[in-house]
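User: Please predict the structure of the protein below. I'd like the answer in C-alpha cell form so I can feed it into my own downstream comparison script.

Assistant: Understood. Taking the following sequence of 333 residues as input:
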Amino acid sequence: MKGEIIDAHDGCLQFFDGRFYLYGTAYGKTDGYTNNDFRVYSSPDIQHWTFAGTLLPNRPEAIYFRPSVVFNPKTRQYVLWYNWYSNAVQWVGHQGVAVSKTPVGPFAIVNPDVPLAHAGPGDGSLFVDDDGTGYLIYTSISEGYTVRVERLTPDYLKSAGESSAALAAGAEAPILFRRNKLYYALCGPRCTFCPQGSDVLVFMASSPLGPFVEAPNINRHPKADALTVHAAPQTMNVSGPAGTFVVQATNRSESHVNAPFIPAQETWVAKIHASAGQDIFIWLADRWQSTPDGLKGHDFQFWSSPLRFDPRNEAILPIEYVSGWDITWVWNN
C-alpha cells in the first residue's frame, strides 16, 4: 500500500499467527457521525500493509466507533466488541459483539446490545489476561462518563457481571494492559475529535478488577514559557523474520504550557514480543484534525517509542517524542 492512506482509527493493533493486524474505524470523507465502516489491514512487518477486509459488511444502520478484536483460545474464535449509537437516539451508547473464524472476518453479530453492569456504555476496549480470562474496560455515559473494568464470560460474548469500582469520571478512550504482575488502566478526559489531544490518566493494580491506585499523568506537557514544536519525521528501524527495514511517519507535535505533550487521543497499547525475551509496549493515538486536506479518514496517528517504566515503582514514565527508534521483534510461539 505504498503511498496509500490507511483509514483505521480508534481501534487496536494485534499480532495473530505471525502477522500484525490493525483494526479501526474508517471515516472516509464523513464528519465521523455516520454509519462508519470497520476495517482491518494486515502486515508481516509493520511496514507493508494490505487492506484485508470490512469487519461488519452487513451491519445495521447506526453510528459505529471503537472496534476491539481478541482471540479466544477456548472457542478458537476471533471476537469483536464495538461501540454503537442509534441514529435516532444519540448519545445512548451500546456495546455489540461479533465473531469470526479468521482475524479478518467477516464477523457475524451474535449479541447486538450486551447488557453490562453499568448502563449506557461508550468507548471500550478488550483485554485478555495470561490465564485466558477476558475483560472489557469501558466508559459508562449514563453514570457521568465513569470508567470501569468488567469481567467477561469464558466465551467473551457477554458480561460475567463483575466489575471494578469507578477509576475516573468524565473520561473516555480506556485501555487495559498487563506488564509482568501489574495491570495498567489508561483513559483521558473527554476529547471528541479534539485537535489538541488528551491527557492520559494512569491507574495501576495487582488485579484486573482492582483496587486501582492513580499514577502520574503520562501526556502532560512540562512547564515551559512558549509553544514547543516537534516537526522532525518519526522513524523506527524494525528487524524481524522478513528482514530489517525503516518505518517512517509524518508527525508534527505542537504543545502549549500545561497542554497535552502529544496532540493525540489514545486508542491502544500494543504489546510486541521483542528479542531477548522482553515485551515492549507501544502507545497508539489518533491525531484528530491533523491532515492537510481536512478529511477525518486521512488523520494521522502517533505511535510512540516503547513505553518506559520507573524502576522504583513501575509507573509509566511520560510519553516521549522520539524521532527514531529500533525494535527487533520475534515470532509469538
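That's the full C-alpha cell string. The mean pLDDT is 88.
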